[in-house]
Write a structure and sequence with these properties.
The chain is of the alpha/beta class. About 35% of the residues lie in helices and about 20% in strands. It has 2 domains: about 270 residues, Nucleotidyltransferase, domain 5; about 260 residues, ATPase, nucleotide binding domain (Nucleotidyltransferase, domain 5, 2-Layer Sandwich), CATH 3.30.420.
Amino acid sequence: MNANNYVVGVDFGTLSGRAVVVRVSDGAELGSAVHEYAHRVIEHTLPGSDVRLGPDWALQSPQDWIDVLKIAVPRAVAAAGVRPEEITGIGTDFTACTVMPTTADGTPLCEQTPGEPHAWPKLWKHHAAQSHADRINDLAARRGESWLPRYGGKISSEWEFAKGLQLLEEAPEVYARTERWIEAADWIIWQLTGVESRNICTVGYKGVFQDGSYPSEEFLAELNPGFAGFVGKLATGEVGDKVNGTTLAPLGGLAGRLTAQAAAWTGLPEGAAVAVGNVDAHVTSAAADAVRPGQMVAIMGTSTCHIMPSDQLAEVPGMCGVVRDGIVPGLWGYEAGQSAVGDIFAWYVDNFGTDGHERLTELAGKQAVGEHGLVALDWFGGNRSVLVDHNLSGVIVGQTLATKPEDVYRALIESTAFGARMIVETFEKSGVPVEEFVVAGGLLKNRFLMQVYADVLRRPLSVIGSDQGPALGSAIHAAVAAGAYPSIEEAAAAMGKRTENAYAPDEASADAYDRLYAEYRRLHDFFGDGRMLHTLRAIRNEAH
């Protein structure tokens, strides 16, 4: 490798895919391109049909992902002004628990039966499997399954097993035809290399793989006898072992080489290194050079994922998971999250905030803390951490006839900051210290929001030095896979970027927010049992 080598990182998000060309020597981003998905999120009817979807459904089209390779990657290379033959590797990341049924050769079932909803990939925010997750959690708790505490006591409706059980029970014929149940993060690598693999990140966090094994066949059969063989649709075995033609692959590893077909799609050289698949949030840690114990990275966009390496293993209530080697090899990787953050602000502006984000932010920023007299719960997309209940819903308390749009907008921003503080405090009370809070993602652009977070958290915020955190992180992993660096840590130190203490808390505002946070906690505890919010959701679903 020399200073003139380059790698490509591709980030497959919720609404679009983006590619960035990065110089291996110093992480300089030389060119990028974005491709908006033609189908975006499929939430109401299937493409080209009148087949309606139920409440809390969210699907995607695999063709949109292939189009990112065909369109965004060549455009990024052209924008960078580098010769394709100088590109030595490509890395990708995906939204986690975007999971799909395929045949044994990787053909998506939605290509065979496009009129069947369950044949399509279920996006991360498909929450229609909550009842299935509840059954998994109840049975695991009764049986004392050893893996359950590794997920804070509950697995999510977003994850592989909950969605797989929903598939079995709601579309058994599709389940029977499903030869592979695979994360999109691994499926895209399959398309690039022709080699099927499973990355340890999604396998651990979303596939309930702990201490070398999945949940037992006996456990799965007790959920539903037809579910007993579900693991056969996944990869099994120890990390690095090949079983049934699949491999559990370490992060930063070489998944394979670019095939002739994938080279034709992307315009990259055939045989270029392809890094092991990864998750958008987890790969961003490398982009922020935040791969050391105690560095919590909050990737704030439509939702927020909180990712942190640690040298300590602990049981943190409501965490999304703790996985050995889940962020970088050799450390425990913790994950928590908030199911909706930017989505909340977008919902409000799209439906009620005619002034738009910038004007509402400007007006909200002129208020004193607490001036609006409101407090809200950030559960508009359910609660991922620490309650792990996607049937919870948003709450706004304190509105009067004098309440203005900017009041509600500010209260919603504050609610997400309170949710983040709840997560940080839960980690620290469990003996897992948060030494540095690093922010990445699209919401970095809102300076007012960042200051609110610093004040609510009562700690400085560091910020990533890239607008394309996941794509840069994937490029860093590609550099490791291509042999430019011996480890993710060394590649991150050379190619990652962050500004420490970019936002400092204001003491007076922090004191005022402590009072509001106390009320948030009271609401959190009152509504967190779900009795009222679950009933309202059930009434809505029956009416639907």
